[in-house]
Amino acid sequence: MKKLVMFAVFVLGTAAMVNAQTTPAQTTASKEVKATKPNKKEHKKAKADKKAETNAAKPEAAKVQK
Questions:
Q1: Phi and psi (nearest 5°) for 34?
Q2: For position 14, what pLDDT does the model report?
Q3: Gap between the Cα atoms of 8 and 1, Å rounded
Q4: Checking CA distances to 14, which of 3, 27, 30, 57 falls within 20 to 30 Å?
């Protein structure tokens, strides 16, 4: 009888440990972020600005090397 009680405690304890929650549950909902389409005008303007900056930087670098 003692062996049967010990076996039952063993089985129930193992089941409780296996089913225990190890990480805390997420209580706050995540916000959904909508993807926006890039504006073509802004993209072209940024691309042109970047190109102008690189062209402007090249002559200065050449002057420093001389």
A1: -85, 135
A2: 92
A3: 11
A4: 27
| Cα Rg of the chain (Å, integer) | 33
Please report the pLDDT score of residue 64 as a whole number.
58
CB atoms within 10 A of CB 16: 9
Assigned token pair, 26: 């997420």
The first and second tokens of residue 25, run together, are 């549950």
Looking at this protein, which amino acid is placed at residue 14? Answer: T
- CA–CA gap between residue 57 and residue 66 (Å, rounded): 15
- Alpha-carbon distance of 1 to 27, in angstroms, equals 45
- The CA distances from residue 11 to 1, 6, 23, in Å, are 15, 9, 23
